[in-house]
Task: structure prediction
Amino acid sequence: MNLHIKNMVCNRCKMVVKTELEKLGFNPVSVELGEVVLADAVTENDKTLIAERLNYFGFELLEDRKTQIAEQVKTTIIDLVHYTKEPLKANLSSYLSGQLHLEYAQLSAVFSEVENQTIEKYFIAQKIEKAKEMLTYGELTLSEIAYQLSYSSVAHLSAQFKKVSGLTPSAYKKQTSGKRKTLDEI
Result:
């Protein structure tokens, strides 16, 4: 039985979901960003119980297929930008189609309908949040950050950074209170 869960954006989220499902007596076979595979089928009452427990921690059980697809796109992008060490070797549309086993046109249409933004804008927003994180830690140069995030140049990163955040990367870095959004708020 597969469950699709909104707002799972990190390894800690996976740990919380797994622990809570086990506390409820369910046996998660696999827990990934946005999706849990249970060993056994669950009843509607079980789903209600799971939904209530997960809501307490800020997660949401997704029933609608379109919402599930949009969430899969988001978690795939989050995983790519924030947790994958290797730069993207293909273009984003090919990568998403390959990962989610759906045509990009379908993914794009569903995502835009559900999220009211394009996949590309969401991808850029995630990359800028990652750039903010890297700038905050101050361990990498802007050139190294641009390379790690697969930007063609520092100028390209800087232009997108300013367009999304309203600040240049150096102005952001100078701010001591550079407020960052949590991944599920993007």
